[in-house]
């Protein structure tokens, strides 16, 4: 008997949910293993973590235990997820030691970096030109909650100067001195541009997939944001937004990060010069905290912006 899947494939109807050319696909396939993660096998570079543990100590591939965002399921067979989500966690061992550098004692961080053909830098030359769209879906882990008195940077593009082309944040912004905490919008997901201007924010509700797509025009130095929850198709939630503080050309290109980067609180017992040096100083409680991710990919805008379920929407203009 000819199966339904064979019939659909025969007529070219089996689709991945993408509608435009994909530059990088960071959706973890079900055959992606912990050993792959520990060895930074494509599509992830997994070195940004605590130096004393393997990547799988901090990042858990969830297999079939949790459904990913439904947006990128095969829209003809939505009951068949096409990826496994992953939970990315931090604890008091999450102190990153860059090659040749000093331990970043002020941060607690675990991140995955997009890479293709075992080369994250070469990917930048493909993804950070023209106009491209960076997709990600984020879900709260109610068993390993974040401490919203801190600032968390959870998705960003990082050029060599350490700035962020854009970023998605949670929590309370780092300040000196530390003010009343948590701030009023600490439980909101916030999208900011390179200059840290707020472009969009939305409540970080539990048990929901929060789907984002950030449109980056690398030539005109602008941004635009699409957003939805769960199975709802992405919709534009901003217009074209200025991002002209981003360095032009290759100086503004950088790696695509997603994970949990927790900033400290300023320690009033430290000298002023140390209080402002968030990489190496400050207060951290050391609790285990986590976020869950799926739907990570980068696409060009040729043919539109993928909105989910095989549909496209027009780029923000």
Give the secondary structure arrangement, pairings included:
Elements: H1 4-10, E1 22-25, H2 34-38, E2 44-48, H3 55-58, E3 59-61, E4 86-90, E5 108-114, H4 120-127, E6 131-140, E7 151-159, E8 166-171, E9 188-193, E10 198-203, E11 210-217, E12 222-229, E13 235-236, E14 241-242, E15 254-262, H5 272-275, E16 289-300, E17 305-308, E18 311-313
Antiparallel strand pairs: 1-16, 2-5, 3-4, 4-16, 5-15, 6-11, 6-16, 7-8, 7-15, 8-9, 9-10, 11-12, 12-13, 12-14, 17-18
Largest sheet: 9 strands, antiparallel
Shape: globular
Strand proportion, as a percent range, falls in 25-35%
What structural class is derived from the secondary structure elements?
mainly beta
Mean pLDDT: 93
Structure notes:
A hairpin with a 4-residue loop joins strand 11 (210-217) and strand 12. Helices cover 9% and strands 34% of the residues. The strands form three sheets. Strands 1, 3, 4, 6, 11, 12, 13, 14 and 16 form a nine-stranded antiparallel beta sheet that branches. A seven-stranded antiparallel beta sheet has the order 2-5-15-7-8-9-10. By secondary structure, the protein is mainly beta. The protein has helices spanning 4-10, 34-38, 55-58, 120-127, 272-275; strands spanning 22-25, 44-48, 59-61, 86-90, 108-114, 131-140, 151-159, 166-171, 188-193, 198-203, 210-217, 222-229, 235-236, 241-242, 254-262, 289-300, 305-308, 311-313. The protein starts with a helix and ends with a strand. The longest helix has 8 residues, at 120-127. The protein has five helices and 18 strands.
